[in-house]
Every structure is written in C-alpha cells, then in structure tokens.
Amino acid sequence: MSLKSLIAVLAAAGLAATATAAEVNLYTGRHYEADTQLYAAFEKATGIKVNVFEGKADEILAKLEAEAEVSPADVFLTADAGNLWRAESKGLLQAIDSETLKTRIPEAYRDPENMWFGFSRRARIIFVAKDGGVDPSLVQTYEDLARPELKGKLCMRSGSAIYNLSLLGAFVAEWGPEKAEAWAAGVVANLAKPPQGGDSDQIKAVAAGECAVTLANTYYFVRFLASDKPEDQAIAAKVQWIFPNQSTTGAHVNISGAGIAKYAPNREAAVKFLEFLASDEAQNYFAAGNNEYPIAGGDGGNAALAKLGDFKADQLNVSAYGENQPAAQEIMDRVGWK
Ligand code: FE
Q1: Residue 35 Cα, ligand 1 centroid: separation in angstroms?
Q2: Distance between alpha carbon 79 and the CA centroid of its chain, in Å?
Q3: What is the pTM assigned to this prediction?
C-alpha cells in the first residue's frame, strides 16, 4: 500500500469514527440537578453523547450571539418562555420540523412558528401564610394582590426576574397594558419590603411572618413539601397554596423548553434530543426530578406534586409572554417594581 492510499484509508476510518460517535451540544440555562439523569437516559436510549454547557440564560444568549456561525451549540434549553422568545427574536434559533413534537406538545406550550417547544410546565401561584392575618378568601386571584387591604402584606421577587416579566407580559396580553400597569402599581404599593431573593426566599419569608402573601412557581413549594428535612416541612406547613383565577382565566403557567440553535452542527441529533424530551420517559424525569408538571401526559408518580391537586390553567399561548416582555419591562420600570 502506498503512503497516499494509507493516508486515504486512515482518513476514511477517522471520518467513520466521527460519524459513529454522534453527539449533541447542549447549552442549558436550567439550574436543576435532576437534568443530568435526563441526559444520561437520552445517551442510553440513543447512543448520542450529550455535551453540556451550563450557564445563566442571559449568559448563554450572549455566548450564542458572540459565537455566531461557528457556535458548536445544537440545543438551547431553558426555563421560561420569555428566554426562548429572547433567543428567537435575536435570530439564534431555527424552525424545527418534527411531527412527533407537534403531536406530543399542545399548541399553547410551543412557538407558533415551531422555533421552540415546551417540555414541562410550572404554575406561578399565590402562597398565603396560614396565620398571617390575611384571609385566603381575599387572595383568590392575581387581581386581588393589588387590593388596598393588602398594604404591607406582600413579598415579591424582583420585577426584572423573568418569571415576573413573563407573568406581567401575560397580563398585558390578557388585560391590556393599562390594567396591567395599574395592577403592577398596586402590587408595589402593597409590598412589605423591597423585592429580594428568589422564589424559595419569598415562600420562606411568608413562613417566617415577614409578609403574608407572595407569588412563586409551584415546584419551589413542592420542594419544601417533599423534603425530608424538618425545617423544610415546617415552612410548607405554615403556608397555604392557592391556584389563582380558577373561576376566570386560570392559573398562569410557564414552561421549560428548548429550541435548536441556528447554526447547529448536529441538527439531526438535536431533533432526536428534543423528541426524547417529549417522550414518556423524559416527561417523568421532569415530574419526579424537579417537581414540574409534564406537558405530554402523566405526573411521574410524584406524590407531593399531586398533593397540590388539579387546577385550571390559563390557555394563553406562552409565546405571548415574550412578545409582551418589552412592554412588561417598561411597566416594571414606571411603577418602580425593582
Ligand atoms: Fe426556577
């Protein structure tokens, strides 16, 4: 064999090796431990290796923008439809053509142009102290949080937190900007202290009597409920959950979801990864591992999550959260929800 043909054979072998060692490069903004089990299950099911880059959603968006055409990213996975909308509006995603995803994921939880799909749900609901001096009948709707009777009773996470921006974005879509702004101003007027900390901190503050009412995502509360630590159980025991707006529009629901990066080098593997996230197996991980509601059926046998009970969810398409995010941010700034 001549040197030239030997090189050709070696090169071909090298290419074959590359082709069989399929991989998908995942940029994830999710900050939940259970996700590593999810990736392992995908690797086991498909033989496709998942390379994970973890960061805050904002950092990932900046990284994708900076890397542009040479980005190794295949999939952007993140909590909150608002983050997916940011990626889409910056031109960082590409449309996904998958019958599996369209069949498995209900329309309300995916982008109308198929730029991203939701894979798990969380509701942003009201939590009230059991002995905080606020009758639960006073706080049955989001609108109630702006009632003057609640002056000095509320704890709220920052107005720049994406969960609150998406919530207010939904209200801008449903109520119109004027009512949404009046509501946000009413909430700010009722604060017991300046916004501080994450969702868990709001629930802790209610349990500690620093305030009587707050909003948080369901899985943060279920974490306390399902914990085997006595201090966590004590927090859950002091707080009552209320699914808001059950006789009107329903509770605000957000998603964790994913899209495929515009310049994904492993596009096919990326589609497979997203289709896996919609499978029964993966759906169970979201529920069992992170106390989120599956989107494509089942509750993953999560007893603590089931304890919250059934609820009516708002049917507004989650893409409205992002579309109204700039308007929501302006309102937050004007009413001083810092
Ligand atoms: Fe979260």
Answers
A1: 13
A2: 3
A3: 0.91
| The token pair that represents 184 in the structure block | 């946000």
- Amino acid letter, residue 315: Q
Q: What pLDDT is attached to residue 282?
A: 92
Compute the distance from residue 253 Cα to the ligand 1 centre, in Å.
13
DSSP helix/strand/coil, 28: strand
What would the mean pLDDT of 145-163 be, rounded to a whole number?
97
What average pLDDT does this structure show over 229-244?
98
* Residues 47, 44: Cα–Cα separation, whole Å: 6
Closest to 18 in 3D by CA, of 49, 59, 58, 62: 49
Helices (H), 227-312: 230-237, 267-277, 280-290, 303-307
Phi/psi of residue 127, nearest 5 degrees: -125, 135
Given a cut of 60, is residue 8 above it in pLDDT? no
Give residue-wise pLDDT tens across range 195-214: 999 999 999 999 999 999 99
DSSP letters along 79-131, please? ESHHHHHHHHHTT-EE----HHHHHHS-GGGB-TTSS-EEEEEEEEEEEEETT
DSSP string across 183-233: HHHHHHHTBSS---S-HHHHHHHHHTTS-SEEEEEHHHHHHHHH--SHHHH
Report the separation in Å between the CA atom of 53 and the middle of ligand 1, taken as the mean of its atom positions. 18
CB 113 within 8 A of CB 95: yes
Summarised one tens digit per residue, pLDDT across range 246-290 is 999 999 999 999 999 999 999 999 999 999 999 998 998 888 888
**Res. 116: pLDDT tops 50:** yes
**How many CB atoms are closer than 10 A to CB 119?**
29
- Dist. CA 186 → ligand 1 center (Å): 25
